Amino acid sequence: MAQAEIGIIGGSGIYNMQGIQRAKDVRLATPFGRPSDAYQVGELEGRRVAFLARHGRGHLLLPSELNFRANIYGFKKLGVERIISLSAVGSLREEFKPMEMVIPDQFFDRTHHRVSTFFGGGIAVHISFADPFCPTVQSALEKACASAGVTAHRGGTYVCMEGPAFSTKAESRLYRSWEMDVIGMTNLQEAKLAREAEICYATLAMVTDYDCWHPAHDAVTVDQVYECLQRNAENSAEIIRHAVRGLPKERACKCGSALAHAILTDRKKIPAATKKKLSLLVGKYLK
Ligand SMILES: [Zn+2]
Fold first, then answer.
1. Are 189 and 203 in contact (CB under 8 A)?
2. Cα(24) to centroid of ligand 1, in Å?
């Protein structure tokens, strides 16, 4: 099977990755069902990459319909060690302007009933999530934005809402009073699952609008988001090229051993079927 070291997830408006050479579509089955679409696997800047359109090519899936587990498991199966996640977000701060980038460092969960773990079924795992993003990938993204001449803000809290409707004004004002910075609908589950899969994960959030709190801007609409994303597609492709080139080959962060002290269950009591199903993720810890 084709292999890759860097995964790229394209959000709203980004359904394929320009510049991937010798690209090949890889369709994968996982123990958690089907990923959003085929992975586009090939070479970018001399590195092996795999691109996935989060909502499917043509944007068929709502945030609440995404099979986050299959998407992240698919990257793991391809050998991916780092994921760059591209996402459109609304800004909750005056100084994070539309067309600018944010590299968040925290999350706040406002989703409901989403599955955000690979575990259960006889194995209890509690990962550390105090620092949900990989600092190495964040640094690569920050440098890449500078190289591409695009304004980027490092740090900020990403509120993950359920959607699909955008926020009410009351919600938007409340998030601002809580000092949240950007709002989106998808990244939190991806980051948790990537951590469980011991894959580095960082978000490049493209600000498309001011949600609905800003008195001088109209409340967000799909047209507004889309127009901004169209204008932004070239920027993000260039940033990704710089980031892929700038990522060090070896991992010096802690992401690759996130499960080392996270499994609580007595190894002898983990059901054989669960061990088999999750062997790609935990096999090395259960020997
Ligand atoms: Zn890492």
1. no
2. 26
Is 209 one of the catalytic residues? yes
> Is 156 domain-assigned?
yes
1 domain-assigned: no
Which pLDDT does position 235 carry in this prediction?
Answer: 86
Give the domain range for residue 89: 6-285
Ligand 1 centroid to residue 177 C-alpha, Å = 31
Catalytic residue among 25, 209, 223, 266: 209
**Catalytic position from the list 37, 105, 181, 211:** 211
Note the pLDDT tens digit of each residue in 176-203.
999 999 999 999 999 999 999 999 999 9
**What DSSP character marks residue 96?**
S
Instruction: Confirm if 40 and 51 have CB atoms less than 8 A apart.
Output: yes
**Whether residue 109 lies in the annotated active site:** no
In a 3-state reduction of DSSP, which class is residue 185?
coil
CATH number of the domain bearing residue 243 = 3.40.50.1580
